[in-house]
Amino acid sequence: MIQVKNVTKDFTLHNQDSAVIPVMRDASLIVAKGECVALAGASGAGKSTLMRMVYGNYLVQSGELWVDGIDIAKARPREILKLRRESLGYVSQFLRVVPRVPTLSVVAEPLLALKVPEEQAKARAQELLTLLNIPERLWTLSPTTFSGGEQQRVNIARGFAHPFPVLLLDEPTASLDPINRAVVLDLILQAKARGAAIMGIFHDAEARAQVCDRTIDVAAFTPICAA
Ligand code: ADP
User: Would you say residue 223 lies in a domain?
Assistant: First the structure.
């Protein structure tokens, strides 16, 4: 479960006379188990900032931000890394990998990090890559040279390899053709059915309608003075 309680966030631009950009005031929301919640709001409203705070990339300035029983606002880096390994998945739009690591290992890696036996981890990776229509001849190659859509599918396979109880999705269907888009939406529905709490940014309105239970407009958390 994700629980955001009275979270505030400003950015201070140290290289610009310490100018302060207030982005969020008193943001509060809950994403329950088995629920998929879409973050909406115009560009600059704070969707990515909220997702990055949940993932522990941006510091929570004040308030509480609970993810699977850990308050990210107070957690130490080591706790956040453990949470990311075990409970908190993030499927971003872009694949970031170490060069020369084969695709199959890229996808299996989150499972290997959890000490899942190699054979089992690779089998799950193969299953997902097949489902996402990545041709087998590419599995032994590094995905660094793959097309945008292929990279996104490898990223999705990696993100769904371990059944994370909490998942963050950043435009998971952005560069996909209709067939792969349907596969991804099905993976999201399966994750919900097993009880995952999912928060995401979905510019694809049809995809949002198919998998999301609710939409939260983050503009509601914009400080009045920043409008
Ligand atoms: P959205 O995802 O809804 O488009 P963002 O969360 O990316 O919005 O941005 C919200 C506001 O916070 C914007 O005004 C943006 O310029 C500012 N912002 C985001 N990240 C940073 C950062 N690292 N440093 C300074 N300002 C930032």
Answer: yes
Q: Determine the distance separating the centroid of ligand 1 and the alpha carbon of 164, expressed in angstroms.
A: 27
Judge whether 146 lies within some domain: no
* pLDDT tens digit sequence for 6-27: 999 999 998 898 889 999 999 9
Question: Per the domain annotation, does 129 fall within a domain?
Answer: no
Using CB distances shorter than 6 Å, the residues near ligand 1 are 11, 21, 23, 41, 43-49
How far does the centroid of ligand 1 lie from the alpha carbon of residue 46, in Å? 6
* CA 45–ligand 1 middle distance (angstroms): 8
d(CA 218, CA 215) in angstroms, rounded, equals 9
Q: How many domains does the chain have?
A: 1
Model pTM score: 0.94
Residue 16's Cα: distance from chain center in Å? Answer: 31
Question: Taking each helix axis from N to C terminus, what angle separates 103-112 and 118-131, rounded to the nearest 10 degrees?
Answer: 130
